[in-house]
Design a protein that fits this description.
Helix content: under 10%
Distance between the termini: 40 Å
Shape: elongated
Number of helices: 1
Mean pLDDT: 89
Order of helices and strands: EEEEEEEEEEEEEEEHEE
Strand content: 25-35%
Radius of gyration: 18 Å
């Protein structure tokens, strides 16, 4: 179905178990995508250049997801996850691990220019914030222990971090995760006891 520019909706057979790479690439009118019930692995490459795509729903049996950069998905704003899925969860359109301790993927066109990472999040996955064009600032807590390599990348408008911890806690986190934010420009990190100025990446 790749390149079907007039395809707006999909009604795939319930029994589908496998979807190949780039299966729906370029279906520029497609607005929603539901992973079929028996498919266990989701790959964002299925949906590259689906410019009208707004919502992806992860069904009950999906066990793994591969989401690096939603190429050409300039309207994508929301993840949904079946409540019976034992591996993943969605909250306010953002994709998490089931226990909500790992933030897996933030929709690149999610509304709003700021986002507050919840205090229960301990890890931010590789490429979790990739190409998030509207983000200008992020708030995060000192409870975060791990920032995956390139966890925040290609976010050209993002310039500010508000860190609910001390400057020493920030330096420790930042130094332990070299490379996590080197492709965009954070110029200020506001901590509970002061501000850290940073040079452009």
């Amino acid at each position: 179905l790749s390149g079907f520019t007039k395809l707006k909706t999909l009604d795939m057979p319930y029994s589908i178990k496998y979807i190949g790479s780039s299966a729906f690439e370029g279906c520029s009118a497609l607005e929603t995508f539901l992973v079929p019930n028996y498919v266990e692995h989701f790959n964002a490459s299925w949906l590259y250049y689906c410019d009208s795509l707004k919502t992806i729903t992860i069904s009950a049996n999906v066990k793994t997801v591969k989401i690096d950069y939603m190429w050409g998905c300039n309207s994508f704003s929301e993840f949904n996850v079946y409540s019976t899925n034992p591996t993943f969860a969605a909250k306010d359109g953002v994709l998490y691990s089931k226990d909500l301790k790992c933030l897996l993927a933030y929709p690149r066109a999610k509304n709003g220019d700021s986002f507050s990472i919840p205090s229960y999040v301990e890890r931010i996955a590789t490429y979790a914030f990739n190409g998030c064009d509207y983000l200008e600032s992020i708030s995060m807590w000192s409870t975060i222990q791990k920032l995956g390599s390139s966890a925040i990348i290609n976010c050209d408008s993002l310039h500010t971090v508000r860190f609910n911890g001390t400057t020493s806690e920030w330096v420790k986190l930042d130094n332990a995760n070299l490379g996590w934010d080197r492709s965009f420009s954070i110029t200020k990190v506001y901590c509970s006891n002061g501000t850290i100025s940073r040079s452009k990446a």
